[in-house]
Design a protein that fits this description.
The chain has helices at about 20-30, 40-55, 70-80, 105-130, 155-175, 195, 210-220, 230-240, and strands spanning about 10-15, 35, 55-60, 85-90, 135-140, 180-185, 250-255. It is of the alpha/beta class.
Length: about 260
């Protein structure tokens, strides 16, 4: 039986670990050829290895999503090779500085990484997405803190709130071209980034969740735990596939109920 993304081309930025890697693996398992992009070439190659190990199709690239020249070159390369892009999943992001006492450099880094990168990736990819015969799907990773304010990092809320509105505006702008745009808004997900968001140092490649943080999440998340990258990947697959063919302009929380309160 054909997978839900059989024969489609997908580009995922920030796919070298965590939610991005899980989504790349899931997309490939559903039949997509996945262009796995991560600024860390070795991490992108490891994701591709995992995909090919399961019989999937993928190629690794190490374009910096915040470097507009590199992103344009990557998308131009996809255009030359495939002539079409069915799914752009702009996942790259960072926690950023906490509190209100931040520098201008902190501001610029967060907005560039979390917001600007997705805007321009979508802009460059639109011609290829429009060529997808009504199957084009843009997915952004926003955050639950783009829907409700973060007491830890107002800057992160600003950046991810911008991603939410980008998805909504883009959905309206390209609907007539058969392209959909949506944002996933993760809550606490068990990845190396999560401890950093709470001011702890996680270990790369591991969750890094200590007992104190697990206890905090148990009390603050209605479902009583952090989510997994695979749970986010399942939602990304839904938004990438025809299962969500009438879904566009949505900011979809994947947060264990955090934003329901």
């Amino acid at each position: 039986m054909a997978g839900r993304l059989e024969g489609r081309i997908a580009l995922i930025t920030g796919a070298g670990s965590g939610m991005g890697r899980a989504s790349a693996v899931r997309f490939a398992a559903e039949g997509a050829h996945v262009v796995v992009d991560d600024i860390r070439a070795d991490a992108a190659e490891e994701t591709v290895r995992l995909i090919r190990q399961e019989g999937g199709s993928a190629t690794a690239r190490s374009a910096d999503a915040t470097d507009l020249t590199q992103m344009r070159e990557l998308i131009d390369e996809i255009g030359r090779e495939f002539g079409v892009l069915h799914v752009l999943y702009s996942h790259v992001g960072m926690p950023g500085a906490a509190g209100m006492e931040i520098s201008e450099d902190d501001w610029n880094e967060s907005i560039t990484t979390n917001t600007k990168s997705g805007f321009f990736a979508a802009s460059y990819a639109l011609p290829l997405l429009k060529a997808a015969d009504g199957k084009g799907s843009v997915i952004f990773t926003a955050s639950a803190t783009g829907l409700v304010g973060s007491p830890y990092s107002p800057l992160y809320s600003v950046a991810k709130g911008g991603v939410v509105m980008l998805a909504k505006a883009l959905a309206c702008a390209v609907a007539a071209d058969g392209v959909r745009a949506n944002a996933i808004c993760p809550g606490p997900i068990d990845t190396p980034m999560l401890p950093r968001f709470f001011g702890r140092e996680g270990t790369a490649g591991e969750s890094g969740l200590d007992d104190e943080l697990r206890g905090f999440l148990a009390g603050s998340v209605p479902l009583g735990r952090a989510g997994t990258p695979e749970e986010v990947a399942g939602v990304a697959l839904f938004l990438a596939s025809d299962d969500s063919s009438f879904v566009t302009g949505v900011a979809l929380p994947v947060d264990g109920g955090v934003t329901a309160r």
